[in-house]
Write a structure and sequence with these properties.
The protein has about 110 residues and is α+β, with helices and mostly antiparallel strands. It has a domain of about 50 residues: Roll (SH3 type barrels), CATH 2.30.30. It is built from two helices and five strands, in the order H-H-E-E-E-E-E. Strand 1 and strand 2 form a beta hairpin. The protein starts with 12 loop residues before the first helix and ends in a 7-residue tail after the last strand.
């Protein structure tokens, strides 16, 4: 066997690039790119604005189990301000809130 006459069999560079850029064919239809969901849906902002405008009496349940009742005066990215009927207004950080509901919507279980 003469080593000078040996020929290497390898794919060309363009074949390798094509294999990397083209996904394998799918049997169930064309490949669709998924769009990323928006960072913010503004649903929270809409809810707070609606409750502020109607001055709805809300119950805020904190992570430690304490409940605060009052009307939401304003909010920002990190906290809400609740005007209580029998006491001073409170500034509550959102990470400390477990959930919020309207006073008349408490479920009986």
């Amino acid at each position: 066997m003469d080593p000078a006459n040996r020929r290497l069999i390898r794919p060309s560079l363009t074949e390798i690039k094509e294999q990397r850029t083209t996904p394998p064919p799918r049997k169930d239809g064309p490949v669709l790119k998924k769009t990323t969901p928006p960072d913010q849906t503004n649903a929270e902002n809409f809810y707070y604005l609606k409750q502020m405008q109607s001055k709805t009496l809300m119950t805020i349940v904190l992570k430690d189990g304490e409940q605060v009742q009052g009307v939401i005066e304003w909010y920002d990215r990190h906290c809400i301000r609740v005007a209580r009927t029998g006491g001073a207004s409170l500034l509550i950080y959102k990470p400390a809130i477990r959930y919020i509901y309207k006073v008349g919507e408490a479920t009986q279980s």
